[in-house]
Amino acid sequence: MNTLLIGATGGVGQSLAHQLAGRVSRLWLSGRNGQILAGLARDLSALAVPAELGNELEVQALAEEVGPLDLLLYAAGAVQRAGLREQSMADLERLTAANMGGLALLLKYARFNPQARVAVLGVYPELIAVPGLSAYVATKLGAEGLVSVARKEFRREGVRFCLVRLPAVATGLWAPLGGAPKTALHPDQAAARILEGVLAEPLTEVLEIR
Amino acid sequence: MNTLLIGATGGVGQSLAHQLAGRVSRLWLSGRNGQILAGLARDLSALAVPAELGNELEVQALAEEVGPLDLLLYAAGAVQRAGLREQSMADLERLTAANMGGLALLLKYARFNPQARVAVLGVYPELIAVPGLSAYVATKLGAEGLVSVARKEFRREGVRFCLVRLPAVATGLWAPLGGAPKTALHPDQAAARILEGVLAEPLTEVLEIR
Questions:
Q1: Fewer beta carbons below 10 Å: N end or C end of chain B?
Q2: Pairing relation of β-strands B112-122 and B160-165?
Q3: Which of A206, A198, A205 is nearest to A72 (CA)?
Q4: Which EC number applies (chains A, B) (predicted)?
Q5: Taking Cα atoms as reference points, which of A35, A45, A93, A46 lies closest to residue A73?
Q6: CB distance B144 to A134 below 8 Å
Q7: Which of 3.40.50.460, 3.90.550.10, 3.40.50.720, 3.30.43.10 would CATH assign to domain B2-208?
């Protein structure tokens, strides 16, 4: 099972990487931080392929290097807290690239084997629609929109999509928000439930993790 | 009622402009095409304020020129048909600016009078999730996300938001899609129903037009 994990150095991403290692025949780990990525790949006997998701050429090169995929896990994500009145367009672009544009680029360039799976980590929109998170909400909903169309466009290639709705998970993503809520899942718990759902047959279109 | 109509030269926008003229005390019309805009403003005794929605300085200048608003109508929009495999990032950026980023910029810079209304023309997501429309779906859902957060952030300023769900309307937006479906509303019909809802008291949060 040729597997590419995007966002492998993130909180949920690292847990996913550990739990995927040994379970898939070939594991590619991608992220922005090449150093952390290289260490993680070494520990897990995986392959590190750093890429900047806002850079089309880098994503294209990544897709070519990993070859036809059986499983693509999109676990990249960025968050920022800013009211609409203070929102900088640079931050909006950064969140757009991490949460939505990188996914569009991967779907443009990735090649898939028959019956491949694509899983995208998403949210419960009603839980995140809070003051200060407009860029996060907009780009996460945008990614849902991409998945809803990709599902139809890739049907002819036999690729199946799973949108994973995650509750709060205790990761560094919460740092700019003042820390994760006490009810947040541990990243290892979240990763275990994600993989259980994403590797199940048949694949569910929307996997709701509580 | 100091009113700003964004996307005034578009199909629904022009109908909205005609129906707003004479009904609001001051009507500002914005769009990208300065020439069409000037003609429309002259015909309707309105004020033309051209602006490129992807340009932060232009939107800021626009917001300053029009002053505190009682009604902001966001009727800008762009569509493009391309499979995810062929999607150019330039087109994705263009749609992002027209459908989502321009709204973020307006909400950053616009000033509002108490009890002001903001109406954003939206879609029925399940109707547009079809192959070739991924960028449109992603950016329209992104705009919905912005509205869901803006509603909460602007409550303290007394600004109310209305998301208008529109069915197919027979406008030029459909040109790249091979023409509007036969069941499409006439833009004048759509505009009449939009204004009826947007000017009603109390303001509904989501106005569904069928």
A1: C
A2: parallel
A3: A198
A4: 1.1.1.69
A5: A46
A6: no
A7: 3.40.50.720
With beta carbons less than 8 A apart as the criterion, state whether B131 and B83 touch. yes
Residues of A in contact with B89 (CB under 8 A): 56, 101, 104-105
Has domain A2-185 been given CATH number 3.40.50.720?
yes
Does the beta carbon of B87 lie under 8 angstroms from any beta carbon of chain A?
Answer: yes
Closest CA to B2 of B23, B30, B24: B24
Chain B residues within an 8 Å CB radius of A177: none
Q: How do residues B71-117 score in pLDDT, each as one tens digit?
A: 999 999 999 999 999 999 999 999 999 999 999 999 999 999 999 99
Decide: residue A40, CB within 10 A, 0-12 exposed, 13-18 middle, 19+ buried: buried
Note whether B205 contacts A: Cβ–Cβ < 8 A: no
Q: Which helix (H) or strand (E) holds B195?
A: helix B187-198
Query: For the stretch B22-32, what's the b/e string if a residue is b when 16 or more beta carbons lie within 10 angstroms of its beta carbon?
Result: eebeebbbbbb
pLDDT at A172 over 90: no
Give the model confidence (pLDDT) of A19-38 as tens digits.
999 899 999 999 988 999 99
